[in-house]
Amino acid sequence: MPNEKVRDAHVHRMSRRKMMRGVGAVLGAMAIPGGDASASVWEAFFQKNFREMSKSELDKVLARLEKEYGEKYKKAVKVRATPPLEGVLYGYGLDLSRCIGCRRCVYACVGENNQSRDPQIHWIKVLQLNKERGVDLEEAEQYYNPARVPEKGHFYMPVQCQQCENPPCTKVCPVQATWTERDGITVVDYNWCIGCRYCMAACPYGARHFNWKKPGLPAAEMNPETHYLGNRPRPVGVVEKCTFCIQRVRSTPGRYTACVEICPVGARKFGNLLDPESEIRYLIENKRVFILKEDLNTRPKFYYFYAT
Amino acid sequence: MNRERLRRAFVPAAAVLALFLASSWGTAAEHPKEHPPANRNGAQGHPQYAVPTPPFTPGIFPCSECHKEMTPNPKRRELKDEHTNIVLNHAQGQRWCLDCHDISNRDKLHLVSGEKLGFEESYRLCGQCHGDKYRDWKVGVHGKRTGMWNGEKQYLLCVHCHNPHDPRFKPLVPLPPPARPESLKK
User: Fold this and answer.
1) Is A141 helix (H, G, I), strand (E, B) or coil?
2) Please, what is the end-to-end C-alpha distance for chain A in angstroms?
3) Does residue B186 sit at the A interface (CB-CB below 8 Å)?
4) Quick check: helix, strand or coil at residue A296?
5) Which helix (H) or strand (E) holds A290?
6) Is the Cβ of A306 closer than 8 Å to some Cβ of chain B?
7) CA-to-CA distance for A80 and A84, rounded, in angstroms?
């Protein structure tokens, strides 16, 4: 026995724990971009979650992104991180008795929010439904393409993020890269998203979209007025969604969303749910309101209504 | 010595006082201009809304350009010489031109009450029959309203979307449908 102790004291033995520690360190070092990687890649790699960043850290990140996008799209790009307005909870109304399914909103959204053109990502999907069947999603058709709309016997229901009060998508995110802000907008931190797509599986409205490839966004069409949590250009491998045009609406005065602005029939309504004088409150109080998949208890802040 | 010091102190003090008085008088006078109420009250107490100019056919307005030469004919009839492109598809048979257009001032419309109103206020004319739509339009629920969700808003007149002589909204060409998943390139 004493002999063995003496031997152990002199022989270098690799314990399992030591071995794993070494392997971990090497693998970790390999994962960190090194060599010719620029400083911004390092900074992006060590960037914190949006909600944990201090003011100065956030400012640094925004400046870095502005520089990066400016070089990529050859124009001055503004990346803001405007916080929610006090006393505001955004709500949306869509008049099902007016919508004619012209899809102007779909493309206005793409232009405003810098979605990928190729491969194509649309945040708004317009469903054509049969008037006799009502809102029967199994009968819904999104590829309709007649010479003129509306078609006889049909009505149209655009679907986009419903900005739920009880969102299933944020609960399943394993890294808390998506959450609901105080003003009711559910957002994604594209730098924190790991691309697992759990949120897409959880969303009952098909409102989340994945960048399977590097987004194809022509520099000429890129909207340079952006928000960190909204329409800034996205990298490959992250999920994105409607943010009620967060870059527009979070200001005093704030513009209407792009889809409200383009709608030729005025079917789209937007406002502050906490303001009793707003159009959204008026329609909720005075019109017949329909909530999509109400039985799931997601509590959308997106109200379909019938003005007539 | 003492008086000199007083004088020196008085001049700037007087200047400051004068400036203060002038500025406070100025703001009091300008106050109404700085804060125009959102809905200004019209001559008859009706609110006026920020609308773009009415969508006239180019060259048609002012109507008095042509009509000043003519003697008004209040007889209900079908027009044969002019305005033949207007086909009334809006309670046709029950009304004709002069139910809405004014006979004595050709550049105006009139309400049932006889009150004359300009074309930029035509929503009040439409609102006589379509009261429910008028009510919704005023709060921004019927029709398109743009601008700032928490600030100044821009309305459209009824006639920007609905031809008053044929008001049904005309069908539009839809923008392309989304790409089908199977058509996406690998």
Assistant:
1) strand
2) 95
3) no
4) helix
5) strand A288-290
6) no
7) 12
Query: Tens of pLDDT along B24-43?
Result: 443 433 333 333 344 444 44
Nearest CA in chain A to B162: A265
The CA distance from A103 to B7, in Å, is 77
DSSP-derived secondary structure for A75-129: S--EEE-PPPPTT--EEEEEETTT-----HHHHHHHHHHT--TTTT--S-EEEEE
Instruction: Report ipTM for this prediction.
Output: 0.85
Condensed to tens digits (0 to 9), the pLDDT of residues A96-154 reads 999 999 999 999 999 999 999 999 999 999 999 999 999 999 999 999 999 999 999 99
Touching check for B173 and chain A: CB below 8 Å? Answer: yes
CA distance A151 to A173: 40
Kindly state the average pLDDT of the residues B140-163: 95
Q: Measured between alpha carbons, how far apart are the two ends of chain B, in Å? A: 97
SS3 B166: strand
In this structure, which amino acid lies at residue A83? Answer: P
Whole-angstrom distance, CA of residue B145 vs CA of residue B138:
10
- Alpha-carbon distance of A269 to B114, in angstroms, equals 35
Q: How far is CA B112 from CA A143, A150, A299, B124, B137, in A?
A: 48, 35, 47, 11, 21
Residue in A with minimal Cα distance to B161: A265
- Which residue among B169, B174, B185 sits closest to A265, beta carbon to beta carbon? B169
Contact of A141 with A251, CB cutoff 8 Å: no
Written as one string, the DSSP assignment of B82-97 is S-TT----SSBTTB-G
Question: Is A100 within 8 Å of A149 (Cβ atoms)?
Answer: yes
Query: What sections of chain A are H helices per DSSP?
Result: 2-10, 16-31, 39-45, 55-73, 104-113, 168-172, 198-202, 246-249, 258-262, 279-286
What does the longest C-alpha to C-alpha distance in chain B come to? Answer: 99
Q: Which of A256, A254, A272, A260 is nearest to A80 (CA)?
A: A254
Instruction: Identify which has the larger pLDDT, B114 or B35.
Output: B114
Nearest to A256 among B147, B161, B174 (CB): B147
Q: Is B175 exposed, middle or buried (0-12, 13-18, 19+ CB in 10 A)?
A: middle
C-alpha A304/C-alpha A269 separation (Å) is: 10
What contacts B81, CB < 8 A, 6 or more positions away?
A: none
Residues of chain A whose pLDDT is less than 50? Answer: none
* Residue A256 distance to chain B (closest CA, Å): 5
